[in-house]
Amino acid sequence: MACTSASTALVLGLQAQTARAEEPSPEPSSSRSSMLPRTGGYPTDDPTSIPTGQAPSLPGEKGPGDPGFSEPPDNIGDSEVPVEVDPGAEGLRLADGAKLAEPKVLDIKFVTEDLGGEERREDSTVKTKFTLQAEVLFPKDSPELNSGAKSRIRTIAEEIEKQGSTQVNVFGFTDDLGSYEHGRKLSKKRAAMVQRELAAMLGPDVSFNVRGYSEDYPVADNRTEEGRKKNRRVEVSFPKKD
Q: Is the separation of the CB atoms in 201 and 157 below 8 Å?
């Protein structure tokens, strides 16, 4: 009787363990957690608690020597030994009677432009030039300065003073809409208006060359409004101080 009872208890215990093993484990509540693999070494279903050292590594993650590793783009490594040049090489010889040109400094130009293209500055080794679109200085088809024009002109005047320039060019340009003569008069009046403002800010020691070129010397395609907008402009340039 005792043996039978023990056997029965053993069988019932095994059945209880089997039933518990076959019960499905509760699904994680997080949709992100449900996508994690149930095998493969993850210690938990919570992705925020996975230790860094146990997460899967990516190709090249371990550094040099690991397949897939590449140097950072700014790491150029050691410079190579320069190649020796044989001055007597056949391909380097000048033709009979030829001479090398005199060395000269190239006119290097730096250009800065705002995002809207309303103002552009060009700096070279010999001069500085500001280009302002007409719309930021004048109302449509008018030579009268608008409310925001003086602050832009003052910035140019401050640069002229900073560089100590005493000779300034102020040139006006239009697009090719309307007659050439109307464009010439309008571009000249606009250039003269900018010159008057600069003269008032700089004083009598600065002289000016003022020109109106109408549609001549376009910088963009007049067949589009975007191009015509760039062509309607005033340029102020002055030489750099020696």
A: yes
Do the strands 207-212 and 167-173 form a parallel or antiparallel pair, or are they unpaired?
Answer: parallel
Mark the ranges of the chain whose per-residue pLDDT is less than 70.
1-79, 242
pLDDT at residue 86, as a whole number:
83
Residue 197, CA atoms < 13 Å, CB-side half-sphere: 23
Query: What is the rounded distance in angstroms from the CA atom of residue 153 to the CA atom of residue 162?
Result: 14
**Integer Cα distance of 87 and 140 in angstroms:** 64
Q: How many CB atoms lie within 10 A of CB 152?
A: 17
Q: 3-class DSSP state for residue 181?
A: helix
What tokens were used for 232?
Answer: 């309607």
pTM value surpassing 0.70: no
Helix locations, 28-92, DSSP H:
31-34
Q: Give the number of other CB atoms < 10 A from CB of residue 189.
A: 16
Cβ atoms of 145 and 134 within 8 Å: the answer is no
Ordered DSSP codes for 135-177: GGTS-TT--S--TTHHHHHHHHHHHHHHHT--EEEEEEE--SS
**Angle (CA) 13 15 18, round 5°:** 110
String of b and e for 31-67 (b: at least 16 CB within 10 Å)?
eeeeeeeeeeebeebeeeebeeeeeeeeeeeeeeeee
